């Protein structure tokens, strides 16, 4: 029988349409994954900001790593990055907003598998969206979840998503804690994870190389003819205190 009640305080945990059976979140009736994602992003300021930062940082990182990538491709991948946590839509926004108890944390950790269940039941899901929503908690050395995949088995979209996800998480205030790192300190944290084999070294290295140009604003000129990247830069700049000089005319 489906159970949606938190036994610790009797509060509901899951949204309608999801149920807990044998400790696993199930999709009980067909749910439009895009509507679920919209409800997640609209459900709390934290979730909407997390998605927004993930979208724009993913676009920036992809543009740094693939200098010739078409803008349409950047925008497409960026939009998927913004939806990377769509599996969290199984939980009520009130749960996501607070510091979690062990039961809730266990359920939240199922969100990549919930994403797989939601997207598997929907037609014409882009494979990259499936990859980024279901594998972004895998780690290069196999320490991630849900599958414990290792470097060679993790698609680059998911490896890049993992770096972006951790970076936007540690550099944005969470509702239940005040600790927040600057962008460069957050990058240091990811670099340390990369040195332990957890994160994708090339992605981290390209961000570290770009850091001075982000901090002095000169990166704006590098992407002067790429409105998609400029839009992402100008979205991220006030959040990370990067200067946004006017485009050079020379
Ligand atoms: Fe996630
Ligand atoms: Fe995330």
Can you walk through the features of this model?
This protein is mainly alpha-helical and 250 residues long. It has a domain at 33-84 and 125-240: Orthogonal Bundle (Hypothetical protein af1432), CATH 1.10.3210.10. It has 12 helices and 2 strands; from the N terminus they run E-E-H-H-H-H-H-H-H-H-H-H-H-H. It has helices at residues 33-43, 45-65, 71-82, 93-96, 102-108, 111-120, 127-134, 156-170, 183-195, 201-215, 219-222, 227-240, and strands at 18-21, 24-27. The protein has a two-stranded antiparallel sheet. Strand 1 (18-21) and strand 2 (24-27) form a beta hairpin. Helix 2 (45-65) crosses helix 8, helix 2 crosses helix 12 and helix 8 packs across helix 9 (183-195). The longest helix is centred in the first third of the chain and has 21 residues, at 45-65. The radius of gyration is 18 Å and the shape is globular. 39% of the residues are buried. The mean pLDDT is 92. The structure holds fe (ii) ion (2 copies). One fe (ii) ion (FE2) binds at residues 85, 111, 136-137, 165.
Give a quick summary of the entry.
Pfam families: HD_5. The protein has 250 residues and is mainly alpha-helical.
Give a quick set of tags describing it:
250 residues, Hypothetical protein af1432, HD_GYP_dom, single chain, HD-GYP domain-containing protein, HD/PDEase_dom
Helix/strand layout:
Layout: E1 18-21, E2 24-27, H1 33-43, H2 45-65, H3 71-82, H4 93-96, H5 102-108, H6 111-120, H7 127-134, H8 156-170, H9 183-195, H10 201-215, H11 219-222, H12 227-240
Antiparallel strand pairs: 1-2
Helix pairs in contact: 1-2, 2-3, 2-8, 2-12, 8-9, 9-10
Pfam family, one: HD_5
InterPro entries: HD/PDEase_dom (IPR003607), HD_GYP_dom (IPR037522)
Protein name: HD-GYP domain-containing protein
